[in-house]
Specification:
elongated, two-stranded antiparallel ribbon, 6 helices, mainly alpha
Length: about 190
């Protein structure tokens, strides 16, 4: 049995290489969006929408962004306030969490409203797009998405639980694999490869 793959067609993204573990496999009907035959569940994406971003790429992009914000915030707060124990639940750990959440919210909001990509998303070649037209979520949509993702962690106990449900929601959401922050802002995450 040969493992040779035919070259991608003119409508297929260029990163659909078999060596790329995150490449979206084409569906039988050629659409990267799952089709369950029920089109009443929500709006269809605009014609020509890039393929949905692979969940692995989305996860790695979030890890990059979390480290990009978390390391400097941790270093600055440790230099100012001394030692920090995130599990202690004392005023110092609460302050560090609050600072981290607010800095992450500002970072994500500013980056998304500019061009739909954070540093992590740029590195993973994915972007956030408005469901209705594929454009970056400028203005209110970008800030709403950033807020629903980051700010619930401020709420003690329940905030982390909401955040966890929010980020895993995309694993079972169909057809657009949206997290709750995507649903709130009417966005989805797509490939940025032209």
């Amino acid at each position: 049995m040969s493992t040779d793959q035919p070259p991608p067609g003119p409508d297929e993204p260029r990163d659909r290489d078999s060596s790329d573990p995150f490449a979206k496999q084409p569906r039988a009907n050629g659409s990267p969006y799952e089709d369950h035959g029920d089109h009443t569940a929500g709006p269809e994406p605009y014609a020509g929408m890039p393929p949905l971003a692979h969940l692995g790429r989305r996860l790695i992009a979030r890890i990059i962004d979390a480290l990009l914000i978390g390391i400097p915030v941790g270093l600055v707060v440790t230099a100012i306030a001394g030692s920090y124990d995130p599990i202690a639940g004392n005023a110092r750990s609460t302050t560090v969490t609050l600072v981290y959440v607010l800095v992450y919210f500002l970072y994500e909001g500013l980056m998304l409203t500019r061009d739909g990509q954070t540093v992590g998303k740029k590195a993973m070649r994915i972007r956030v797009a408005m469901l209705e037209n594929g454009r970056p979520p400028v203005g209110q949509a970008g800030w709403l998405r950033a807020g629903v993702y980051a700010l619930p962690e401020i709420v003690p106990c329940c905030g982390f639980l909401f955040w966890l449900i929010n980020v895993v929601w995309c694993t079972w959401d169909r057809p657009f694999r949206q997290c709750l922050h995507d649903k709130a802002a009417k966005t989805l995450v797509v490939s940025a490869v032209p």
